[in-house]
Amino acid sequence: MSEEERAKMNALDEAAEKAGGYVLNMVNKDTKYNLRELIKYCKEKGIEPIDLTLRELNNFIIQ
């Protein structure tokens, strides 16, 4: 990754943080997830997002 690409990625991260975080499309292209809350949950539980059960993952779907 070039320095320019890294700078653009950092700018995107900062803009997303100011806007309230990312929304991640993980399974279905029409399903949106609240990534900020999902990551917070994983940190609290001490697990990786890949280790979430479908039931847990469904709690972060944005309607």
Task: Write structural notes for this entry.
The structure is a single chain. This protein has 63 residues and is mainly alpha-helical. Helices cover 52% and strands 11% of the residues. The protein is built from three helices and three strands; from the N terminus they run αββααβ. It has helices at residues 3-19, 35-45, 54-58, and strands spanning 23-24, 32-34, 61-62. A three-stranded antiparallel sheet has the order 1-2-3. A hairpin with a 7-residue loop joins β1 (23-24) and β2 (32-34).
Topology:
Elements: H1 3-19, E1 23-24, E2 32-34, H2 35-45, H3 54-58, E3 61-62
List keywords for this structure.
63 residues; three-stranded antiparallel sheet; 3 helices
Structure in a nutshell:
This protein is mostly helical and about 60 residues long. It has helices at about 5-20, 35-45, 55-60, and strands at about 25, 30-35, 60.
N- and C-termini, Cα separation: 35 Å
Order of helices and strands: HEEHHE
Question: Fraction of residues in helices?
Answer: 40-55%
- By DSSP, the count of extended strands is 3
Radius of gyration: 14 Å
Strands of the biggest beta sheet: in what spatial order?
1-2-3
Q: Which structural class do the helices and strands define?
A: mainly alpha
Q: Overall mean pLDDT score?
A: 80
Q: Shape, please? A: extended
Largest sheet, in brief, is: 3 strands, antiparallel
Are there runs of 5+ residues with pLDDT below 50, and where? none
Helix segment tally: 3
Strand content: 5-15%
